[in-house]
Specification:
Elements: E1 2-6, H1 16-30, E2 34-39, H2 45-50, E3 54-57, H3 67-81, E4 85-88, H4 91-99, E5 107-112, E6 128-131, H5 134-142, E7 150-152, E8 178-182, H6 191-204, E9 209-213, H7 219-229, E10 235-239, H8 245-250, E11 253-256, H9 265-272, E12 277-280, H10 285-288, E13 296-298, H11 303-315, H12 317-328, H13 336-354, H14 356-359, H15 362-367
Parallel strand pairs: 1-2, 1-4, 2-3, 4-5, 5-6, 6-7, 8-9, 8-11, 9-10, 11-12, 12-13
Helix pairs in contact: 1-13, 6-7, 6-11
Protein name: Glycosyltransferase family 4 protein
Organism: Paraburkholderia metrosideri
Pfam family, one: Glyco_trans_1_4
Length: 385
Amino acid sequence: MKIIHLANHAQNVGNGIVNMMVDLACMQARAGHDVTVASAGGGHEGLLAQQGVRHVLLAQSPRPSRVPAMVAGFHRLVARYDPDVVHAHMITGALIARLSFLPRRFALVTTVHNEFQKSATLMGVGDRVVAVSEAVAVAMARRGISRARLAVVGNGTIGTPRLASTPVPHEPQLAHPCIVTVAGMYERKGIRDLLQAFALLRERVPDAVLYLVGDGPDRAAMETLAQQLGVAEHAHFTGFVADPRAYLAQADVFTLASHAEPGALVLCEAREAGRAIVGTQVGGIPEMLDDGEAGLLVPPANPVELAQALGLLLTDRVAHAALMARSRQNCERFSVQRVREDYQLVYEHALASRQPRRFATIATTANLAAPEIAVRDAVPRKTTL
């Protein structure tokens, strides 16, 4: 199968959309597919080349003045590689592919990574629209996307080619007891709530330390808040870390305090590391934590309950050990191999609906008669096709 992935860039800056796309493209190439990533580049080109994925420069911008050049570049790309599937991971690429005036032989697949954005509705232009969690699928259906065109493919990072040849770092050495978050410094990531919770927590656990791994436009404001709360000496802003496994491996508690979170890759990584986890009950977080079996769930924007959950895990050894054990269970569903297999099913369904003689298999042809087709969610054994 010939596949083209579209994204605005391929920068190695911790962007979950890019990381997921790179993992998928590499795994598809390993499986023998002809895979191209078209983007403005920026960091992952070397890895893609090593994995047998070609990278083609295709600048993508939301500016209307750039549309003619982008469409023309996309036409050249399609003419050169004649793809079976074009997979758009960001809105610009989805619209370029859909607005193309060429006779369309390829199937267009779109993945909704950031459903919380109003513009995410535009991802509904795909022949098949993939949600990274059931919560996202429900939200997209409410926006008018037919459930017959929606599929759920949960994110996964275990076995990622991005880190496969790199040993887990031993540095830095963290102070204990410690809480770690790996998140962009954005208001929606709940960093403000986490700092307020940490200030409350230190009244109960005065030697607790917080590590905030990530960067973003709100970092300066969050550092100022840490000063105002009197926790600046104990709340360490590390900036972006390309390989955060050393922080995850040493975390006494990992937390993600987001206000909106479709399907955070870092939760896969924290569970692979066997961490005790506290997450907010929003978006795809409950699904990724087995509805609270693999991590404590607290309401979003509630520093008091967040502090209580963190305090429980830092002071109750039995609860901490039990949650660490449950965190490791059922982690095979977060493998990049499972993600690739699920997307293969999505592609086959999309292609069968457009070109059944060439691509349909007995299984896909039979299932196309169903009024609603659902690809595997994050738990492979619960597949319904």
